[in-house]
Specification:
The structure holds 2 protein chains of 2 kinds. Chain A is α/β, with parallel strands linked by helices. In chain A, 45% of the residues lie in helices and 16% in strands. Classes of the chains: A alpha/beta, B mainly alpha.
Chain lengths: 352, 380
């Protein structure tokens, strides 16, 4: 039945523990784990937000710049993790002029920020700063994950400011049957949570995300790590990713309340009942070209949650791209480095 | 007693020595049982864990600052993998001479799986929520415990403080709270006592929610085990038996995740998990109210007052942004341009008037009385 023998099992266990022991020495020598590698300059600041422009890597970048709107729940350096794992760098190499919003770490004074403040406030002003710098009526926007949902709302409310919209691993329909987060959110008393906690701690969100696949994410992953412990380079990559996973900012309380209620619990983005800043959000207003990239093995944003977008936008120029990976692999896998940035750049160039 | 290692290299040597001693001890046991593997329930995992725990106590003081967490994590991983090794060892032992379809193979197989389960979970499949990473089934609950600790107003790990009350579960919390709840509120502090008792009741509710969640998590183990059994048999029948512990471990994780996915999307689990979070929030909310009362009594600012200030500031900022927006919509540059034009026109008119005045011939001023007369005449 099993081709295993006790002495073999023991040897494997001891070998494994020896690796861990040796790995401790490597761990003490790894040094600082840096993230965010591409040169950039801050061109606008407001509260905790910083708008960065990355230094172009071609002489004549695309005339219409691209603004990356990342999620609020993790740090945006995932898009520029290291030199050979960087969506930003890939876009720069492909000739795109890249801007990015870094939301910072909200604290108690930010508790009353609402979706309106993020979408009609921060994002709009960042877009306007870029528009004025480049003397353009509209720019390209790339929304990632939750940032994609915010970008959809922004674009629906301010279509005149967006020339082309790209969404990556973006939830649109929050009630698809395979959306475990969506199911879990139904019984959550989010009012009690926000009234109690104010800002929602990153630890709580981490617990939720890890709970989606607890055995793989809190057990197997570290067993896999043991195989990298004798390679400082690989170990550093692992630790970089580990740093990102647990570098979760607290969430501004009122925004979290609204996001959970409006999207996860009530699915308003597609029911047509969503208003932000007393203005109705109608996805049919999105009539500019849309590129929607989703990951086929995404456990956080299941493919169906993203694919739904096509049914609700008003554009006639809609492209969906299925990428074989998980939620994280779409930024950092070797194949993603080759295909995703160049694909986005090509799509944009055809439409500028 | 071993000396405290001063360098990572010395740390490693001591670690390897511990491994070696564990292996030798295990080999002795194997010899004693006639070359067979030590029997299930034997000292295999204990031997390792006790050795490592003793070693850990010895070396902790000698580790470089800031490395304790990493070393502790590595050791937990090592313990967890050891436990999996023990589980597979028991499974191998129970099913060594068994071929599907032969005699009582199913009974032997079930016995092997039962022993496997005892190793990865606690006895009879019960999950110990305080067992942490070192036990397989403890992982999801260990995550939650960390969240609870991070949200608690109590320093350190509140649940850990209750461990002396006995086995984990709502009973431990109930025992701890029982004394508090059994005291009748009396005298001037009666209201305060009632609030503290209410807090205790909320903790009990959370304890019950924890128990329900724990039960749900516990059901994952059984399902995962069924899947593991089916897949191992299927692989054996396909002529692809598990050939390494690592292969077995990965298969076990696959089975556990599949089982968890089934349980975690069920209505009972979702309700239990929601209740776990909601009851914790209720506890914390009540704690905040208790703390706020103390702060008020000491004339210190409370969270509620801060919230009021923050909300007002945010509302003012929104009003300011709205006014800025209105000003933008007024098209101020155009108005400024128009104003500049009007000013220029006014300047031109004034200059024109001055020129006209300057060009007009000088006329003697009429006597004041004469002017008045002339006006009176015009008016009739």
């Amino acid at each position: 039945m099993l081709a295993l023998k006790p002495d073999q099992i023991l040897k494997e266990v001891l070998d494994f523990n020896t690796k861990l022991g040796r790995g401790f020495s490597t761990l003490t020598q790894v040094g600082e784990v840096e993230t965010g590698v591409s040169p950039r300059e801050a061109i606008y600041r407001e509260d905790k937000l910083v708008l960065y422009r990355y230094r172009p890597r071609v002489d004549r970048p695309l005339g219409v710049p691209l603004l990356i709107v990342y999620a609020l729940v993790n740090r945006p350096y995932m898009t520029d993790l290291q030199e050979d794992r960087s969506l930003v760098r890939g876009l720069l190499d492909a000739g795109v002029d890249v801007y990015l919003i870094d939301w910072g770490y909200p604290d108690g004074a930010d508790r009353y920020l609402e979706l309106d403040d993020y979408i009609n406030g921060y994002i709009r002003r960042c877009v306007d700063v870029i528009r004025h710098r480049h003397e353009l009526q509209s720019i390209n926007v790339l929304g990632i994950c939750q940032g994609g949902t915010l970008s959809l709302c922004f674009t629906a409310l301010h279509p005149e400011r967006v020339k082309n919209l790209v969404t990556m691993v973006t939830p649109v329909d929050f009630h698809t049957p395979d959306n475990l987060l969506g199911q879990w959110a139904q019984g959550l008393d989010v009012d009690l949570m926000v009234d109690t906690l104010g800002n929602v701690p990153g630890e709580l969100l981490n617990w939720t995300f890890l709970s989606l696949k607890p055995f793989r994410l809190t057990g197997q992953k570290y067993v896999d790590m043991a195989d990298m412990l004798d390679d400082p380079g690989k170990l550093k990559n692992f630790l970089r990713m580990e740093k990102w996973i647990f570098d979760s900012p607290d969430q501004a309380g009122e925004t979290f309340r609204q996001f959970v209620k409006y999207f996860y619990q009530q699915n308003r983005l597609i029911t047509g009942d969503l208003s932000i800043g007393q203005r109705a959000v109608d996805l049919a207003q999105i009539t500019m070209p849309v590129l929607n990239i989703y990951a086929t093995a995404d456990h956080l944003v299941p493919p169906d949650a993203s694919i739904a977008l096509e049914r609700y936008v008003g554009t006639k120029d809609y492209t969906a791209v299925a990428f074989k990976s998980g939620h994280i692999g779409i930024y950092v896998s070797a194949r993603a480095q080759k295909e995703i940035p160049s694909g986005i750049a090509r799509w944009l160039k055809e439409r500028v | 007693m071993a000396e405290i290692p001063a360098t990572p290299a010395a740390w490693l040597d001591l670690w390897l020595e511990t491994q070696k001693r564990s292996m030798e001890a295990w080999a002795e046991l194997a010899k004693a049982s006639g070359g067979e593997a030590p029997s299930s329930g034997g000292p295999w995992p204990d031997l390792f864990q006790k050795g490592v725990d003793a070693w850990w106590r010895t070396v902790t003081a000698g580790l470089p600052p800031g490395t304790h967490d990493a070393a502790s994590k590595l050791m937990d991983i090592g313990k967890g993998y050891w436990r999996i090794g023990d589980a597979f060892n028991k499974l191998v032992e129970a099913t060594r001479a068994v071929t599907p379809g032969d005699g009582d193979w199913q009974m032997a197989w079930q016995e092997g799986l039962k022993r496997f389960q005892e190793s990865v979970c606690d006895a009879e499949g019960q999950v110990n929520p305080w067992s942490g990473f070192a036990t397989f089934c403890g992982m999801p609950l260990d995550n939650w415990r960390r969240v609870v600790s991070s949200l608690s107003v109590f320093p350190g790990d509140f649940e850990q403080a209750l461990r002396s009350e006995g086995p984990p579960g709502p009973e431990a919390v109930r025992r701890a709270m029982g004394r508090l709840l059994s005291t009748p509120p009396l005298g001037y502090t009666r209201e305060w006592q009632e609030q503290v008792q209410e807090w205790a009741e909320l903790w009990l509710e959370h304890g019950q929610a924890m128990h329900d969640y724990q039960t749900e998590i516990g059901s994952v183990g059984g399902r995962a085990l069924d899947k593991l059994g089916s897949r191992l048999i299927a692989r054996a029948q396909e002529g692809k038996p598990i050939e390494s512990l690592r292969e077995g471990y990965d298969l076990w994780i696959d089975c556990a995740e599949d089982a968890y996915a089934e349980v975690a999307s069920g209505a009972t689990f979702i309700a239990a998990q929601s209740r776990l979070t909601n009851t914790l929030m209720a506890v914390k909310r009540h704690e905040q109210q208790l703390v706020a009362e103390l702060q008020s009594a000491l004339n210190m600012p409370t969270r509620r007052e801060l919230n009021t200030s923050h909300r007002r500031v945010q509302e003012l900022r929104r009003e300011l942004r709205a006014l800025e927006g209105q000003m933008e919509s007024l098209d101020l540059p155009r108005l400024h341009q128009e104003l500049d034009g009007l000013r220029a026109e006014l300047r031109a008119l004034r200059a024109d008037r001055e020129q006209t005045r300057a060009a007009a011939p000088a006329t003697p001023a009429a006597p004041a009385g004469g002017r008045r007369r002339a006006k009176a005449k015009e008016g009739g």
